[in-house]
Amino acid sequence: MKPIFIMIFLVVFFSCKEEKTLPAIVQIEKDVVFLASDSLEGRATGSEGERKAAEYIAKRFEDIGLLPKGDNNTYFQKFDYTPKTNPHQLPDSTSHSENTITGTNVIGYIDNNKETTIVIGAHYDHLGYGGAGSLYREGKAIHNGADDNASGVAVVMDLASKLAEGADPGNNYLFIAFSGEELGLLGSNYFVKNATTPKEKINYMINFDMVGRLNEERSLAINGTGTSPQWENSLNETPNDFKLVMKASGVGPSDHTSFYLNDLPVLHFFTGQHDDYHKPSDDSNTLNYEGIEAISNYVFNVIIAVDDDGKLAFTKTKDESQDAPRFKVTLGVVPDYMYAEKGMRIDGVTEGKPAANAGLKKEDIVVKLGDHEIEDMMGYMKALSKFEKGQTVKVKIKRGEETVTTDLTF
Q1: 101 and 238 share one domain
Q2: 32 phi and psi, to 5 degrees?
């Protein structure tokens, strides 16, 4: 009887172990589905939904084997902020009042007894039931934020699983799920000012924000490639099947900016804007899970490729947003930010706006506005800045193999 009992025990033990160790793509989808579920009510900073999400992420960190690296030997780093009352004033993450809300960063750590630490992060907060950041105009609704940014958090947890398996790492690894990003990078800003690991020992920071919509062209935007001389070669030389769209600037509307402004090399991975951005329709069934896993595998290989290079040199970059011109008119389109060829490709058209009224469609490529040739996104914005409301101009577009010229009235 004893050998039979032992055999049964081993079968049960290994069956349980197999159930816990899901294939990466299955675990990624499971994480996104939970974080983007209606039960979390959009994960607004300070909400009950955020608390549930934080507890889920902390439990996943614990199951992976990460050490707690928040406050008081927990996975949580809490911060307070006071919502703005003046629409021209940023939220205050230090002052206290009756309206003060507490946000929570979730932090786990792999201690490899190395001199330097890599920070790998993504924000997990979203818009709750909508509010000022929502682009939904039909009333109150849960904004689940599957792409923005359950997708990024799922990659952070997948990388934690991969990097926890060992090899011969040259760095320690710190994994952070930030809160307060939608309110103005509050969680990441608080962390860099109250780092739970020596800030001077941080090597670089990798940020994932909206990596769930890899398109058919497999376009992957990487921002911050100019923040270290190491980045561009390493990114290009690491095997991949992506169409890489690289931008040098370390400044952008996501959490890597908080680290760049503290003189740390950064990378931000992003698969592009879409019609569901900041709307209730950003749900888990719209994501490309094969694409998410492929991005995670690629970044893992990039990390390994530079892991024995020591502390990366930091390079300041030009803030491209400072060069953006001001303009009084708009076409009423969503540009395709992943498009890297000549012109500005349209990713979405708003009904009733100038582009729709002129017959422009999704995937049209604007190559000329009035007398202005459009080479890229910056050229498109500079051209817009030359026009006034009510003005009619010729717009030239490429539609497949066809070139079309039509009148457009701003």
Answers
A1: yes
A2: -65, -45
Please name which of 18, 40, 39 lies closest in space to residue 27, comparing C-alpha atoms.
Answer: 18
Q: Which pLDDT score, from 0 to 100, does residue 337 have? A: 75
192 and 166 part of one domain? yes
- Is the peptide bond prior to 149 cis by the omega test (within 30 degrees of 0)? yes
The pLDDT value given to residue 351:
84
> How many domains does the chain fold into?
2
Which structure tokens are listed for 308? 């024995």
Name residues of the chain where pLDDT drops below 50: 1-19, 86-90
Chain-centroid distance of CA 258 in Å reads 14
- Say whether both 355 and 305 belong to one domain: no
Cβ(90)–Cβ(184) below 8 Å: yes
Among candidate residues 320, 352, 381, the one where a domain is terminated: 320
282 and 333 together in one domain: no
In this prediction, residue 336 carries a pLDDT of 82
Give the H/E segment covering residue 63: helix 48-64
Domain ranges, residue 127: 20-320
Output the pLDDT for position 255: 97
269 and 363, same domain (yes or no): no
C-alpha to C-alpha distance for 369 and 57, rounded to whole angstroms: 48
Examine residue 11 and state whether it is found in any structural domain, yes or no. Answer: no
Cα separation, 307 vs 353, whole angstroms: 50
187, 180 Cβ separation under 8 angstroms: yes
**Residues 343, 296 share a domain:** no
Start-to-end Cα distance in the chain:
85
Identify the pLDDT of residue 7: 45
Q: State residue 368 phi and psi, 5-degree precision.
A: -155, 135
Determine contact, residues 156/121, Cβ cutoff 8 Å. Answer: yes
- C-alpha–C-alpha distance, residues 282 and 276, integer Å: 5
Domain assignment of residue 3, yes or no: no
Asked if 168 and 81 touch (Cβ cutoff 8 Å), the reply is no
The predicted structure's pLDDT at residue 97: 54
pLDDT at residue number 105: 98
Concatenated DSSP letters of 201-261: GEEEEEEE-S-S---TT-EEEEE-TTSSTTHHHHHHHS---SEEEEE--S--SSTHHHHHT
DSSP class of 39: G
Q: Alpha-carbon distance 76 to 261, whole Å?
A: 24
Rounded to the nearest 5°, which phi and psi values hold at 5?
A: -60, -45
Among residues 305, 320, 335, the one where a domain terminates is 320
- The Cα 315–Cα 263 span in angstroms is 8
Do 341 and 311 share a structural domain?
A: no
